[in-house]
Amino acid sequence: MRIDILTLFPDSVADVLADSIIGRAQERGILRIEAWQIRDYTASRQMQVDDYPYGGGRGAIMQADPLYRCWEAVCDEAGGPVHTVYLSPCGHTFTQADAIRLSKLNNLALVCGHYEGIDQRFIDECVDEEISLGDFVLTGGEIAAMAVADAVCRMVPGVLSDPECFQEESHYAGLLEYPQYTRPAIWHGRAVPEILLSGDHAKVARWRRKESLRRTRVRRPDMYERLDLSGKEDRKLLREMEEEYGKSGNSETMDQGE
How confident is the model over 158-183, as pLDDT tens digits? Predict the structure, then answer.
C-alpha cells in the first residue's frame, strides 16, 4: 500500500511514520509512505501557499493551485487512482471501520490543511472524502494525518505479525478490549485475576469475552446497543453479568476489570 501525505511539514510527518512497526513495514516493502511539501508546488517566488479569504474575515486560506499541483504530482507518481482524504473538523468522525476500509486501497492521499482551512474548490475537484478525528480543532492536519495513516497501515496484511494482534482490540469487532495484565502477578497489592493464571485457554477466552461485554456496556453504551448478542454463549454471559450487577447495585462497579 502507498500513502502520500500533502503537508507544509513533511519532515515531521515522515520522521514519526518511519519508526517502530510502520517503519519496519516500509523497510520490508509492505508500505510506502511519502510526505510532500506543498510549498514546492507554488508559483509564488515567496513560496506563498495562502491568501486572505474572499468575503473578509480573520486568518488566511490555503490556495487551491499549490495544493492541486502537489496533488497532480502525487497522482502521477502513484501511477493509478488515488483516493484523496482531506483531514478536516467538518469531516465524518474516523472509526476503526474506516481504517479497515481504507487499508484495502492501493493508493491513499492525505491532505493536511492549515490556517483557516483550504480553498473549497480544491475540495470539490480533488477530495473524495473528509475525515475528522473528533469534535475538536487542531492547528493543522498533520497530527490527524499521522493518526489515520498509523491506524490504516496496521490493518494492511503483513504489517502486524498475526491477525490476532488486532482482531481482539477495541473497536475491531464493535467491542472494547478486555483488561490486560503482565508480571508481576501481584503489584501494589493488586492481583491478576486468577483465571488468567489457570492455563485453561477456554476459560480465559470466555472471561475475556465477558469482560469486553462488561466494559463496553459501562463505557460505551452506544456501541453496546449495536451488538448482536443473540448467540447462546453471549446470552449466558449476559445472564451472569445481570446477576453480578444485581448484587453490586451500582453500574459503575460492573467494570471490575480495571
Answer: 999 776 555 555 557 789 989 999 99
Contact assessment for residue 85 and residue 101, using Cβ atoms and an 8 Å cutoff? no
The three grid cell numbers given for residue 242, joined into one nine-digit string: 445481570
Between the two ends of the chain, the Cα-to-Cα distance in Å is 37
d(CA 72, CA 84): 11
Query: Positive or negative CA dihedral for 160, 163, 167, 168?
Result: negative
Q: Do the beta carbons of residue 7 and residue 113 sit within 8 Å?
A: no
Instruction: For residue 168, give every residue at least 6 positions away whose Cβ sits within 8 Å of its Cβ, in sequence order, or none.
Output: 177, 178, 208, 212
Q: Please tell us whether the domain made up of 2-161 is placed in CATH 3.30.450.20.
A: no
168-254: CATH class: mainly alpha
| Whole-angstrom distance, CA of residue 14 vs CA of residue 94 | 21
Give residue-wise pLDDT tens across range 174-228.
899 899 999 999 999 999 999 999 999 999 999 999 999 999 999 999 999 999 9
| Residue positions counted in the chain | 258
Question: Quick check: 210 and 241 in contact, CB under 8 A?
Answer: yes
Residue 142 has phi, psi (to 5 degrees) of -65, -45
- Residue 4: closest CA among 52, 38, 44, 40: 38
For the chain, domain boundaries: 2-161, 168-254
Q: How far apart are CA 33 and CA 199, in angstroms?
A: 42
